[in-house]
Specification:
alpha+beta; Arc Repressor Mutant, subunit A; 3-stranded antiparallel sheet; two-stranded antiparallel ribbon; about 40% helix; about 15% strand; elongated; Excisionase family DNA binding domain-containing protein
């Protein structure tokens, strides 16, 4: 049995005026209720992402604020791969310290890589002149090749 009460209300989603049969009705139609529900869920997702970003930014110190960096951090800072950093540590081009399995590099040692080095020079490539070459007949005879020539019509 339906209620005989008729209450004029305004839809909370679209703002249209409608007649409600219950006092707790908030929306004029099922479609407005669904759209409002999706809107709320979308806003909750956005708030959750923003909250996660806020927490992640405050907890992790940036590379610029730390004095000692790992090989991964050095690779990110210099724009090279991690496997390129390891040979620098092994050969002694970059001073580092190993604690257990982790390698730490002082940020000042990275700057020392660029001081006192010779400037980069491009060496010209020597072009050699072709003095010795084989003719087609010599190649055929040496390799015992048989060529079939097609006659063009």
């Amino acid at each position: 049995m339906s209620s005989m009460i008729q209450i004029k209300k305004v839809c909370q989603y679209c703002g249209k005026e409608f007649i409600a049969h219950k006092t707790v009705t908030k929306f004029c139609s099922h479609q407005c209720a669904q759209r409002n529900y999706k809107k709320q869920k979308r806003e909750e997702k956005i708030e959750k992402v923003l909250e996660e970003q806020k927490h992640s930014n405050t907890n992790q110190p940036t590379i610029n604020s730390r004095e000692y960096l790992s090989c991964d951090d050095v690779a990110d800072l210099m724009g090279i791969s991690r496997t390129t950093v390891y040979p620098y540590c092994i050969t002694g081009k970059m001073n580092c310290i190993r604690m257990n399995r982790k390698i730490f590099i002082c940020k000042g040692d990275i700057d020392l890589l660029f001081t006192g080095n010779e400037p980069y020079e491009v060496h010209p490539v020597e072009k050699r002149e072709l003095t010795e070459f084989y003719t087609m007949q010599e190649i055929v005879c040496a390799n015992h090749l048989i060529f079939i020539l097609r006659s063009s019509n």
